[in-house]
Design brief:
Pfam families: DUF4212 (PF13937)
Helix content: over 70%
Strand content: under 5%
Protein name: DUF4212 domain-containing protein
Number of strands: 2
Structural class: mainly alpha
Number of helices: 3
Shape: elongated
Number of domains: 1
Order of helices and strands: HHEEH
Transmembrane segments: 12-39, 51-71
Low-confidence stretches: none
Largest sheet: 2 strands, antiparallel
Strand order of the largest sheet: 1-2
Distance between the termini: 15 Å
Keywords: Membrane, Transmembrane, Transmembrane helix
Domain Sodium symporter small subunit: 7-83
Amino acid sequence: MNNGNGEAYWKANVRLMITLLIIWALVSFGFGIVLRPLLAGISIGGTDLGFWFAQQGSILVFLVLIFFYAFRMNKMDREYGVDEQ
């Protein structure tokens, strides 16, 4: 991999990580803490939606983001020619 291609790969990787961290922060901090009073009227599984996001939702979203990151990085590795054969 040449230097220009390596820089493009790294920028794409950092952009993906920042995007996924913003999503996780929005779900865990935003929905679970900041927006909890707004979500209190919505019921899911016998409790309000804000509490669900704080206790379960942020963990589930985090797991989905981990698998998405692995899938996307495998695809990005193939695109930039740094995949494992």
